[in-house]
Amino acid sequence: MRTEITELLGIRYPILQGGMAWVGTWELVSAVSEAGGLGIIGSGGAPAEWVRDQIQQVKAHTKKPFGVNLMLMNPDADKIAKIIAEEKVEVVTTGAGNPEKYMDLWKKAGVKVIPVVASVALARRMEREGADAVIAEGTESGGHIGETTTMVLVPQVVDAVSIPVIAAGGIADGRGFAASMILGAKGVQMGTVFVASKESIVHDAYKKKVVKAKDIDTKVTGRSTGHPVRSLRNQQTKEYLRLEAQGASLEELEKLTLGGLRRAVVDGDVLHGSVMAGQIAGLVKEEKSCREIIETVYYDAEKLLKGSRYE
Ligand code: TUI
After folding, report:
1. CA separation for the pair 182, 303 (Å, rounded)
2. Between helices 120-128 and 150-160, what is the axis angle to 10°?
3. Apex 181 CA angle, 180 and 182, nearest 5
4. Candidates 76, 129, 144: which one to mutate for ligand 1, based on the most atoms within 8 Å of Cβ?
5. Distance from the CA of 32 to the center of ligand 1, in angstroms?
6. From the alpha carbon of 227, which atom of ligand 1 is closest?
7. Please, which residues have CB within 8 angstroms of residue 311's CB and are 6 or more apart in sequence?
8. What is the pLDDT of residues 106-137, one digit of tens each?
């Protein structure tokens, strides 16, 4: 299946791995890219030099294209943006903000720019600013989220822009991939299913929690602060939601989640850490290799799409 996304990115399958903080490290990124998808380093809140090191590690492990996600709230965002240009990374995706100010720098360096958007308005603006594609991410996703569901967001973004649209949020199998193509997307981005992949360096306790999760096991914290985040429910989300309902201060709330993702991913503290995952965690039943994930999603979708004009 060749789409505008496989052509744009020079990859075999139009499948991107979400650039997840602490999870999108060189091990996962090079495995996804080697399997024919697009692996993406997750910069999250990491220091600039860590990102440079990860880029070099991926280059040492695969000759295939890969990307870097710049989380725009990162205090080192300006430095990381420059490193992405200097290292001539093929693709940058951005999250949790508007990347306009870096657009010229990246375009001049030949870096393809694919912002994550959670609204039609931002998608239109990104197209105007020269984005090569957009990722329309629904509220089903894990981590920092927007309000609109993937089913509702994707076709509206597809109608609003002429650049290719990649669907994200709630996709983990061939059905989700096929549905996304029918909605007009030219590719998909998946996160949660790659968290539980064999190559991800995520702590085993975290992977087990994703695999055990049911459909209703995620919670959204931080709606009151303007930074809603979806995670698997645990002691931390329970306490956060209790404090939030009581009108606790931002300071008090932040104390609870500070360093929470690291605690969960690295230390395996899935009780008091932030176990970010999307609503599709309930569909992830086992740990598979990145190659198995990508090929199963792709070939299952191909069967479903046979006979349709998306074939
Ligand atoms: O960025 C993400 N997901 C993330 S970032 C992250 S790190 C973090 N950790 C703790 C607290 C907060 C963040 C964990 N997960 N996804 C991409 C995404 N971007 N989702 C939604 C958006 C978004 C939302 C509003 C993008 C732009 C936007 O508006 C920008 C504007 O200025 O209009």
Report:
1. 14
2. 30
3. 90
4. 144
5. 23
6. 12
7. 302, 305
8. 999 999 999 999 999 999 999 999 999 999 99
Q: Where are the alpha helices (DSSP H) in the chain?
A: 4-9, 26-34, 48-61, 77-86, 103-108, 120-128, 150-160, 174-182, 192-195, 204-212, 235-245, 250-257, 260-265, 290-305
Q: Which long-range contacts (CB under 8 A, 24 or more apart) does 5-8 make?
A: 5/133, 5/164, 5/166, 5/186, 5/187, 6/187, 8/112, 8/132, 8/133, 8/164
Distance CA 37, CA 30 (A): 10
Q: Look up residue 177 and give its two tokens.
A: 């991939």
Place of tokens 């693709």: 91
**pLDDT tens-digit series, residues 19-54:** 999 999 999 999 999 999 999 999 999 999 999 999
- Residue 71 CA, ligand 1 centroid: distance in Å: 7
Token digits of residue 143:
């981590």
Ligand 1: residue whose CA is nearest its atom 30: 97
Looking at the CA of residue 142, tell me the nearest atom of ligand 1: 15
Which residues touch 245 (CB under 8 Å, ≥6 apart)?
A: none
Tokens standing for 103?
A: 């657009």
SS3 131: coil
**Nearest-angstrom CA–CA distance, 239 and 275:** 14
Using the mean position of ligand 1's atoms as its centre, give its distance from the Cα of residue 154 in Å.
17
